[in-house]
Design brief:
Oligomer: single chain
Number of helices: 10
Structural class: alpha/beta
Largest sheet: 6 strands, parallel
Distance between the termini: 24 Å
Number of strands: 8
Strand order of the largest sheet: 1-2-3-4-5-6
Bound molecules: 6-hydroxymethylpterin-diphosphate
Strand content: 5-15%
């Protein structure tokens, strides 16, 4: 799943694809690089991101979805029902909702649905997130959302542990470590680690028990190696979909994993 952020402030590619032509070019580039689908988003969910008004988000994403939907499977990354409706009308067939609240909208359109775990909102989610047991809590949350999505009539469902959404470095690593457990629930798993803060922190030599910011993190553009390592790990654990910025490199790794499978 290639990431296409039609935003001004996304943490790694904000402003690069805000322009329609630039977004279309990047979408087509990811198709050529071997993406299976393109995830179009018009509002950043990075820690501290501000809300984008619905009219603005619609204006950003709908034309891009419409233009790409004839060329590749498109998912829409939104938490707003009106944006989801419009994008699914415009040709998107998967709803990637980091708030996990729009299953009924996906069902209404006969679209697939991604249910992701997050704790808090972009404004507060990285303020000392705490769990008794992050793996149990995330798994139980996703089981509950799975039941709700099924009851709402969603036929194609993915669950996502929500790496970086209200999680410390250690929480992210615990969840990656427990991926086989999540995969074993039988619902296809989506993983999004690409260029995230914990990779910049660990890649710069930060401690697994530390916090992002303890050491100057690697720049988001310098996180390819760590992103690939985590993508390979997720694929080897059986994840069904990997959400990435660096499509060509991840596709090459995916081909290797596929051909390594017994
Ligand atoms: N991560 C981001 C956005 N959407 N969706 C799913 N299902 N899983 C994720 O891990 C996920 C997601 C954040 O990454 P990005 O889109 O690159 O940044 P931003 O939110 O700043 O636009």
């Amino acid at each position: 799943m290639g990431v296409l952020n039609v935003t001004s402030d996304s943490f790694s590619d904000g402003g690069l694809y805000l322009d329609f032509e630039a977004a279309l070019r990047r979408g087509r580039e990811m198709i050529a690089e071997g993406a299976d689908l393109v995830d179009v988003g018009g509002e950043s969910t990075r820690p501290g991101a501000g809300a984008v008004p619905a009219e603005e988000e619609l204006a950003r994403v709908v034309p891009v979805v419409e233009a790409l939907a004839g060329e590749i499977r498109v998912s829409i990354d939104t938490t707003k029902a009106c944006v989801a409706h419009a994008a699914l009308e415009a040709g998107a067939t998967l709803l990637n909702d980091v708030s996990s609240s729009l299953a009924a909208v996906a069902a209404e359109h006969g679209a697939g649905f991604v249910a992701m775990h997050r704790k808090g909102t972009p404004t507060d989610m990285q303020n000392d997130p705490y769990y008794e047991d992050v793996v149990v809590e995330v798994r139980e949350f996703l089981e509950q959302r799975t039941a709700e999505a099924r009851a709402a009539g969603v036929a194609e469902l993915y669950v996502d542990p929500g790496i970086g959404f209200g999680k410390t470095v250690r929480h992210n690593l615990q969840l990656l470590n427990a991926l086989p457990e999540l995969v074993a629930t039988g619902v296809p798993v989506l993983v999004g680690t690409s260029r995230k803060g914990f990779i910049g922190h660990l890649g710069a030599g930060g401690s697994a028990n530390g916090r992002v910011g303890d050491v100057p993190p690697l720049d988001p553009d310098d996180r390819l190696e760590g992103s690939l390592a985590s993508a390979v790990w997720a694929m080897a654990c059986g994840a069904a979909l990997i959400r990435v910025h660096d499509v060509a490199a991840t596709v090459q790794a995916a081909r290797l994993i596929r051909d390594t499978a017994p």
